[in-house]
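Q: Structure tokens for this one, please.
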Amino acid sequence: MTYNVHRCRGRDRQYSPQRIADVIASAKPDIVALQELDVGRARSGGVDQAEIVAAALGMRAQFHPALKVMEEQYGDAILTACPSRLIKTGSLPGVQPLEPRGALWAAITIGGRELQVINTHLGLVARERRKQIECLLSDDWLAHPDCGDTVTLVGDFNMQPQSRNYRRLTGRLRDAHRSRNRHYQATFPARFPTLRIDYAFVGPAIHVRHVETIRTPLARIASDHLPLVVDLDIEPAVSHLQQAAQ
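A: Here is the predicted structure, written as tokens:
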């Protein structure tokens, strides 16, 4: 699942990490990528939203702050109960004075394979998204040898499927939604979604079985985005003996 939780602030203006956890739990995902989390911020009660949501789901959280002001942090997280290790976190290039953006990369072992998961939240302006996508396509991220074919890039990309930035990304990875659906399902705004700005892009060793947005009454009020859920199969690793035989 990828889910922009809007600081856990719902359409009713209430801050509720537990409500976000309830939306996530309804889909029973193994891996959750969250954007727009507050950690220690006065506006949301000074709590660690990433840890609260993770604890409610029986998961562990890897959090990266895209923004830090004194003790207050704001950023993205990857949650899972599967064996995992944090590979990399980092900031993405931006345009001043716009909000800083970042990404984090975790390797998660599931089904006997290690899945590389990169979670990000791109900027609101096309020219900054272009810089951020070029960074993600570089040797530091998607072109890194450890990424390989079992990689998924997820998050809030603030772009439309018709855009040049979208075409740049799909030159490297497949749009999971387009793999299973001719027509897209919008994710924003939650009440009456008309825009598709949340995505999951997958590498060649990943087969997409199903894609859907969660459109329950609770999901429509818990955040300003709807969560996107992707069911994936990872191809079994090919041994050196099998490669030699081929």
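A few notes: The chain has seven helices and twelve strands. The chain has one domain: 2-236.
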